[in-house]
What does this fold into?
Amino acid sequence: MDAKLKAKAMTDDQLDGVAGGTYDQSWDVALKLKQAGIEGTINGIGGVNFDGMRKAISDLGFESKDHGGFIIGKANTYVEKSTGKEFTQKEFVDFLKQKFPVLQEQN
It folds into this structure.
C-alpha cells in the first residue's frame, strides 16, 4: 500500500463509527428484532423500515437515536425511557439478546 494512503487508512474502530455508524447498526437491530418475532422492522425490499424499527424499540421502553441513515461519526445510541440511561449499540444488542433468548442461539 502506498505510504501516503497507509497513513490515511482508518482502523476498524474508526470505520465502525463511520460506515457502521447508523444504517449498518440499524440493520443489525432491525434484523435482530425480526429474528425475535417482531414484525415490521424490515421493509418490502429487504432494508430497514425505520418507522417500524423505532416503534418496536419504543415498545421495549427505549428511544432510538439512529439518525436515519449514514452520518459520519454518529454511532447509534438508545435511551431507556424510564431512566434516561443511554445505551451504546453493543449494550442495546446485549439487552436484546437477554430479552429474547432466541437471539443468543444466533450469531
